[in-house]
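Please annotate the following for my students:
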Amino acid sequence: MEYYFDNAATTQVRPEVLEAMLPYFTQSYGNPSSIYKIAQQNKKAVDTARKQIADAINSRTEEIYFTAGGSESDNWALKGIADSMSAKGKHIITTAIEHHAILHTCEYLETKGYEVTYLPVNEVGLVSVEELKNAIRSDTILVSVMFANNEIGTIQPIAEIGAVCREKGVIFHTDAVQAVAHVPVDVEAMNIDMLSMSGNVRS
């Protein structure tokens, strides 16, 4: 008998999700961006999904963008802010225990002239909010801290970090792939500017 213990990485599709998605694989497969009837039906389905996600994290529907997954979302968030805000500064803050989607993107940005501060964590994986606050500089453009760690399960003090970033006028991104649908997430109350999430982790 074989046992699978890595649902934090990915998991099988729930039966009800498979049932809900089957029509879009077999019958209603039109491009939702097109103008023909089958496509417009799919556009309504995408719009409904966008609203459901927005409601789940207390966001606006126009703020929800679909990507191929959490890693692409992380990559897009960091590179997008780095590119759009390079005139203000080229300093980014993250932690030493982020997912590789963040760490590898930061390494790439370092080759493009950006400076990245990798904050340490304590014995249980928590970052110090005070250390983070002290690391913010006048040229800091982005802070990215994972909401819940995918290997040790540590949940960071996201609301406190968000408050610091808002006070300092710095964009705050969180990789919340392991958090959404497991713990309450409110982007407004937590001062989260950008959030990455994924549908492939069992809730």
Remarks:
- The CA atoms of residues 23 and 29 lie 8 Å apart.
- The mean pLDDT is 94.
- DSSP finds six helices and five strands in the chain.
